[in-house]
User: Which sequence fits this backbone?
């Protein structure tokens, strides 16, 4: 179904017919300011499709104008069957009609039925689902009734494309099964799957544990009993063996026998011991006698030897002392001669020095003379050089002369130029009258032209004077005077009267310079290091001495040589004597020391002899023989006795063994008797407690308890598994249920938020959270803009689902985007266009400027022209 | 001259039956214990009835090595109250000589005069011309044929040689303590009275297990007996008669089921109609049953159980067959169906362990029960 035109009459402010025509496919936009009747239009469409013509409820009443009257609404729709005009009027003469091409095809209730059929029968209408009233920007809201209707619509739609939600998720039966399962499970286990305190599972576990403990306890008691029984048997056997009379008697006899044997052996051993001691004494006597004899002999020998040695040493000492005295005398003599030789040597050296000095003085006088002459020459050269230098500094140098030459040439040139143009007077003297005519500069030369650059008076001797006034030819420009003045100035500067003089002065300067150079060269050759150096050299030459008795140098040298040789010989003699003295001293000391030690030795030997007392060597020798014989006798007696000795050690061992056997037997009996009593007591007690009987019982109880625990564990596993299965199935079913809408919504959501998803509420059949980037945000905490965007996208998805179900219904949005910003609104427009395709979307908005970018077919609400 | 005696064994007096579940209002354990004690009277009666002066107990007269004093004293007293009979008691493995030394001390000290404890492996003349050759058990678990000493035991010429031993003829544990089945020939016995096995068994003409006079396990399927043995003279073949002494019948039955069978009816058909009070019955169900059949079977078992001394239905070996109808009863579609199908596939999975499959199968059965319960 698509709406093509809407006409209102007597609807609120439209007391005259007003209509919207030319509603096309795809997007249609009615963009009007507020108060232009957009909501009225929406309400009218709502009323036409959903309010029976007989209705007088408040929604319908709200359509009446203030003045009252019967609201009329006509909507033209186009379906697959063609184009129809649906008309409804409420209150006065209420009516509903459906026309097709002007032909009435249904009216009143039949028309209502037709309308219901058009909207898809009971399979869910578009109201609330995709027709959204102004201000309904969220998915929920409106009156309770509206919400309920919207829920119904959603449920119908979902069911029409899938199955009943109840059928899908199992509904109450599932809830009940799950509840029962959890209830039963809670009887056994806690929420975390542990046995619940006080529950049968825990109880069974505890019981198994308790019985296990008791079983273990009883088993160990039984084991102890068995051990005690075994031990008692062993103990009884051991005791019986120990206490058998023949065994006891045998033990006793054996002990007695070994004791007697042992006593005899002990006595014999004592006798042997006595003899051994006697033998030891004899050996001591013999040894002592021998020792004494040996000592006596040794002392005597020592005394003799020491005495001889001492005498020899004393003689040696005396010899050494006299040798020492001799040597000392020799040394003293040697020292005297050495002193004399040294004095002689000094004298010889003095003589030689004086001779040398005399030679040097002679050589110095010649050099002095030569040097003094050289100094004189050098000073002369220096003086000449200085004179020439002074001359070389006066007079013009070459450059100045050249300048003078140039000025002179310039003057000549100026003069020549002047004379060339000046009036010239040439005198040709008659012979003999030469020189009678005088000019300013003396007599005029014959035949020589005299230029007259200015008025000149020529005096002619004897005649008078001839004034000549040349014509003012302008030749007289003063250049000759200037050049003359310049030349004169230059000449004045160098102090020359004229050029010739200047030239001479220049030549004189050059000559002086040459002279200076020569003098300098002479000086350099005489005194390359300056004259001062020559003076110093001169000062270094010794002044000749006045010594006249200086010896001849050769004689002095020979004398010195002889003195040195003599001195050396004396020195060697003295050193040899000193060494000999030292040797003699050492010999004397050594001899003294040896003598002292030998004297000591002799004293010791004599003391030793004194100690031995007044005995004779024969007596001592006799004693030695006697004691040796006594020792031999004692040894024989001891050996005889020891030969017959019984084996004391083995007899002792036998006795010890026999005693320990007896002791052991006694100890063992002493241990066994109380042990037996204890064991018997323990056995009586344990068997009286019927430990094995209880053990058997406990074992059976434990088995039963373990079986019970296994059953309960299994039961818990069953319940846990069932709960998981039910929960999983419900989740899966829920997902399946929402698959169609999720599929439709996905591409739309992606326009705004890539990878975003919505989760759906089973009860509300609405999204309850938006998942973006893995984060779940409940719808109602999202911003107003986001909420309305989600809402609009969901509605568009629903519309698409309806379309797929073959029920194309226009989407009517009355100011559905209020909070959306410019960026998002563009994308929302994209979404709208994307959905528009084969659908019809009618957008009512007061946001004229914002919605200009939406495009689509523009609609106008206009008065019907009569 | 015919010598007649009663051969019995394994009285296991003092056994507590703590493994048998005791219903809160029942007394089954007490009754079972009492029946064991009662076997003494039954044996005395059998001896009197057959005119036998001797009762040979081939071991395990007492259940444990240290029975409680009351158990011992009352048993001894009961034997003493049959003075015309002489009781020859052999230590078995449960009351072996070493572990039960105090017990045998008590017996030799306090026993009535008509009781003879056979604690020595030595021939003894039990009556004129009759030599009893006892083989007391010294340890709980031996490592040699306990009847081996019989070969060396001498008896006067012309005497009947009656062997008395305790142990199995089959070496289950391979410890070497089995009794040679031809011991009678090796030791020249006229009769070898054996104990240890609780079921009656004739090993050969002269070698017999009498079994316990009062059964204590499901294995044997008949009431306990004792044997009345007649021997005409040395070398004569013994005449052996079984005398029923047991009060309780322990039995096992197998219930083979297949799908679409009324399992409850099949169970009821299997059950005995009489003697249920003294009957301990274990029914092992096998085969296949549908989900509802399983529920029916469980209910039927619950219903009949109180009739019996003890009733146990074992369904471990009963597999569940799931049918579309069963799942439809849970739900035709939707989440409950999803859950049910997930559990079915897990129960029938070949990759999961048996335990996991059992859990899934039982979870499914439980879900079925929930949904069914919710309907009613």
Assistant:
């Amino acid at each position: 179904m698509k709406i093509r035109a809407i006409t209102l009459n007597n609807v609120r402010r439209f007391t005259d017919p007003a209509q919207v025509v030319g509603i096309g496919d795809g997007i249609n936009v009615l963009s009007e300011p507020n108060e232009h009747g957009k909501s009225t239009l929406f309400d009218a469409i709502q009323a036409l499709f959903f309010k029976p013509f007989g209705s007088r409820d408040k929604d319908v009443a709200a359509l009446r104008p203030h003045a009252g009257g019967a609201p009329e609404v006509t909507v033209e729709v186009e379906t697959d069957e063609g184009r129809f005009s649906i008309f409804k009027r409420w209150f006065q003469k209420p009516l509903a009609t459906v026309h097709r091409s002007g032909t009435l095809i249904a009216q009143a209730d039949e028309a209502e039925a037709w309308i219901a059929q058009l909207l898809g029968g009971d399979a869910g209408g578009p109201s609330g689902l995709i027709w959204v009233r102004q201000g309904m920007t969220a998915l929920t809201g409106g009156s309770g009734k509206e919400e309920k209707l919207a829920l119904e619509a959603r449920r119908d739609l979902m069911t029409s494309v899938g199955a009943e939600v109840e059928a899908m998720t199992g509904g109450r039966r599932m809830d009940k099964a799950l509840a029962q399962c959890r209830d039963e499970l809670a009887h056994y286990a806690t929420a975390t799957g542990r046995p619940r305190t006080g529950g049968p599972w825990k109880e069974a576990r505890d019981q198994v544990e308790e019985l296990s403990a008791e079983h273990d306890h009883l088993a160990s008691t039984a084991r102890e009993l068995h051990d005690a029984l075994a031990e008692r048997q062993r103990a009884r056997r051991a005791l019986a063996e120990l206490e058998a009379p023949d065994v006891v008697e045998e033990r006793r006899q054996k002990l007695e026998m070994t004791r007697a044997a042992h006593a005899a052996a002990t006595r014999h051993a004592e006798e042997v011991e006595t003899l051994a001691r006697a033998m030891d004494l004899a050996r001591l006597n013999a040894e002592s006698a021998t020792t004494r004899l040996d000592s006596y002999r040794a002392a005597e020998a020592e005394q003799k030897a020491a005495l001889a040695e001492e005498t020899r040493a004393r003689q040696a000492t005396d010899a050494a002392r006299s040798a020492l005295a001799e040597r000392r005398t020799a040394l003293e003599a040697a020292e005297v001669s050495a002193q004399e030789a040294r004095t002689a040597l000094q004298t010889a050296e003095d003589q030689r020095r004086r001779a040398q000095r005399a030679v040097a003085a002679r050589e110095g006088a010649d050099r002095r003379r030569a040097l003094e002459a050289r100094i004189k020459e050098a000073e002369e050269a220096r003086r000449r050089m200085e004179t020439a230098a002074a001359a070389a500094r006066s007079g013009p140098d070459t450059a100045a002369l050249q300048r003078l030459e140039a000025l002179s040439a310039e003057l000549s040139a100026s003069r020549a130029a002047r004379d060339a143009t000046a009036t010239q007077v040439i005198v040709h003297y008659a012979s003999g009258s030469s020189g009678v005519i005088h000019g300013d500069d003396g007599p005029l030369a014959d035949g020589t032209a005299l230029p007259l650059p200015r008025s000149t008076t020529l005096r002619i001797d004897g005649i008078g004077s001839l004034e000549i006034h040349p014509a003012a030819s302008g030749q007289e420009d003063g250049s000759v005077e200037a050049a003359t003045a310049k030349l004169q100035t230059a000449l004045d500067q160098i102090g020359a009267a004229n050029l010739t003089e200047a030239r001479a002065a220049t030549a004189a300067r050059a000559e002086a310079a040459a002279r200076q150079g020569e003098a300098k060269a002479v000086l350099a050759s005489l005194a390359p290091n300056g004259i001062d150096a020559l003076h110093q050299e001169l000062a270094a030459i010794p002044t000749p001495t006045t010594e006249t008795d200086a010896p001849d140098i050769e004689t002095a040298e020979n004398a010195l040589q002889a003195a040195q040789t003599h001195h050396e010989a004396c020195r060697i003699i003295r050193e040899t004597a000193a060494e000999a003295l030292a040797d003699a001293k050492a010999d004397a000391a050594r001899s003294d020391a040896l003598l002292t030690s030998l004297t000591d030795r002799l004293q010791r030997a004599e003391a030793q002899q004194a100690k031995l007392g007044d005995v004779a060597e024969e007596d001592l020798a006799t004693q030695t023989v006697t004691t040796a014989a006594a020792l031999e006798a004692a040894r024989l007696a001891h050996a005889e006795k020891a030969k017959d000795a019984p084996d004391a050690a083995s007899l002792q061992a036998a006795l010890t063994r026999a005693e320990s056997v007896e002791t052991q037997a006694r100890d063992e009996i002493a241990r066994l008797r109380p042990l037996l009593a204890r064991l018997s007591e323990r056995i009586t007690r344990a068997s009286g407690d019927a430990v094995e009987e209880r053990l058997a019982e406990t074992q059976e109880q434990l088995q039963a308890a373990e079986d019970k625990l296994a059953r309960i564990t299994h039961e818990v596993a069953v319940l846990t598994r069932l709960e998981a299965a039910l929960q999983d199935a419900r989740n899966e079913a829920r997902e399946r249920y929402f698959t169609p809408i999720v599929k439709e919504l996905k591409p739309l959501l992606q326009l705004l938020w890539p990878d975003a998803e919505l989760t759906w509420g089973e009860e509300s059949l609405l999204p309850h959270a938006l998942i973006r980037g893995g984060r779940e945000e409940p719808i109602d905490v999202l911003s107003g803009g986001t909420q309305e965007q989600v809402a609009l996208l969901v509605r568009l998805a629903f519309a698409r689902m309806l379309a797929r179900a073959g029920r194309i219904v226009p989407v009517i949005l009355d100011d559905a985007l209020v909070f959306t910003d410019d960026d998002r609104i563009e994308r929302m427009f994209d979404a709208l266009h994307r959905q528009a395709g084969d659908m019809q979307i009618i957008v009512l908005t007061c946001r004229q400027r914002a919605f200009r970018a939406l495009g689509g077919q523009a609609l106008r609400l206009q008065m019907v022209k009569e | 001259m015919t010598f007649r005696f009663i051969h019995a064994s394994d009285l296991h007096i003092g056994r507590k039956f703590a493994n048998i579940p005791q219903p809160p209002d029942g007394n089954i354990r007490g009754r079972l214990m009492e029946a064991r004690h009662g076997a003494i009277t039954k044996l005395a009666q059998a001896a009197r009835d057959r005119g036998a002066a001797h009762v040979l107990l081939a071991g395990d007269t007492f259940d444990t090595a240290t029975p409680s004093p009351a158990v011992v004293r009352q048993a001894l007293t009961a034997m003493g109250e049959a003075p015309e009979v002489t009781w020859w008691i052999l230590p078995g493995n449960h009351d072996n000589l070493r572990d039960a030394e105090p017990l045998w001390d008590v017996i030799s000290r306090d026993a009535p005069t008509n009781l003879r404890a056979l604690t020595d492996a030595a021939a003894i003349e039990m009556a004129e011309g009759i030599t009893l050759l006892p083989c007391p058990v010294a340890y709980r678990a031996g490592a040699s044929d306990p009847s081996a000493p019989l070969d060396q035991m001498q008896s006067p010429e012309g005497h009947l040689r009656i062997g008395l031993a305790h142990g199995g003829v089959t070496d289950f544990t391979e410890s070497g303590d089995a009794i040679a089945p031809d011991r009678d020939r090796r030791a020249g016995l006229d009769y070898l009275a054996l104990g240890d096995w609780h079921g009656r068994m004739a090993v050969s003409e002269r070698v017999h297990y009498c079994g316990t006079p009062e059964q204590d396990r499901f294995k044997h399927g008949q009431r306990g007996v004792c044997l009345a043995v007649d021997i005409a003279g040395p070398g004569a073949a013994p005449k052996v008669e079984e005398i029923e002494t047991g009060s309780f019948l322990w039995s096992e039955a197998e219930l083979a089921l297949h799908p679409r069978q009324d399992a409850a009816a099949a169970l009821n058909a299997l059950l005995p109609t009489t003697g249920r009070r003294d009957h301990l019955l274990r029914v092992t169900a096998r085969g296949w049953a549908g989900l509802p059949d399983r529920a029916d079977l469980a209910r039927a078992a619950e219903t009949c159980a109180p009739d019996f001394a003890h009733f146990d239905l074992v369904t471990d070996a009963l597999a569940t067959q799931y049918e579309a109808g069963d799942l439809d009863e849970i739900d035709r579609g939707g989440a409950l169906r999803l859950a049910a199908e997930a559990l079915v596939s897990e129960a029938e999975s070949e990759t999961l362990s048996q335990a996991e499959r059992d859990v899934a199968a039982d979870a499914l059965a439980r879900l079925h029960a929930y949904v069914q319960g919710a309907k009613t």
User: Anything to note?
Assistant: The mean pLDDT of chain A is 81.
